[in-house]
Amino acid sequence: MTTRKLRLALLQMHVEAGHPNENFRKLAELLEQAVDVQDKPDVIVFPEMWNTGYALERIGEIADLDGERTKAMLSAFSRKHGVQIVGGSVAEKRADGVYNTIYVFDEKGELQSDYSKIHLFRLMEEEKHLTAGNAIGTLDVAGEKAGMMICYDIRFPELARRLALSGAKLLFVPAQWPNPRLHHWRTLLTARAIENQMYVIACNRCGTSGETSFFGHSMVIDPWGEIIAEADDTETIISVEIDLALVDEVRGRIPVFEDRRPTLY
Ligand SMILES: O=C(O)CCC(=O)C(=O)O
């Protein structure tokens, strides 16, 4: 098997709900730490709604207008350091509502793609304050296709399968997944990796916001379902190397995609 290595950095951060300036400052600090290392990352990922947190009552006031502040920061950083960024997600204010959106920048600082969360989480009343996206999201990573899902999206296996069928070999999952559902988080992420024989790269937040605490446990799972890196519940950066060749190797070993019977189900 010819190896095709790629280094990832996952910035597991605390998010200060309702304080975008503080969160931009924190993210800038973590980004500098992520590249100030010997093994520089090729791709950097962060959590969901890192700019505002879940200050949903005020989200219309504090969301980033057309994502301009976020895009300016991420574009400049990716260009300066020659690194690809899967920019977590931010609350993004558009003319027709506030979206929960991931921006992807390539290593030249160009906006490569975006994705807005399509399943809004009713347990946190997202549907009252946010507008759902209407399209699936993909990006190119080192010449391979990858998909994007945000937090609650991972409860919908059809979406991950659709991304895999469209050619995705990696899945990026920014999240703000709280206690007490660590078991769901680990199990669902692992299942998405095993059933689609793809890398799952999931970046959660940590810390507390009001009554809600977040367990962190950002993780990278390989296409065989092994958790190859996992954080604890503190603010930290996971740095891990993956081998894209493993996807084809696993898909060759158990040919799930060839054995599907879509005419029956
Ligand atoms: O599905 C879950 O348990 C958590 C989802 C969530 O917190 C979110 O989508 O923001």
UniProtKB/TrEMBL annotation:
The keyword Hydrolase applies. Keywords: Hydrolase. Residues 6-244 form the CN hydrolase domain. GO terms for molecular function: hydrolase activity. Belongs to the carbon-nitrogen hydrolase superfamily. NIT1/NIT2 family. PANTHER family: DEAMINATED GLUTATHIONE AMIDASE (PTHR23088:SF27), NITRILASE-RELATED (PTHR23088). This is Carbon-nitrogen family hydrolase. It comes from Paenibacillus aurantiacus. The lineage of its organism: Bacteria, Bacillati, Bacillota, Bacilli, Bacillales.
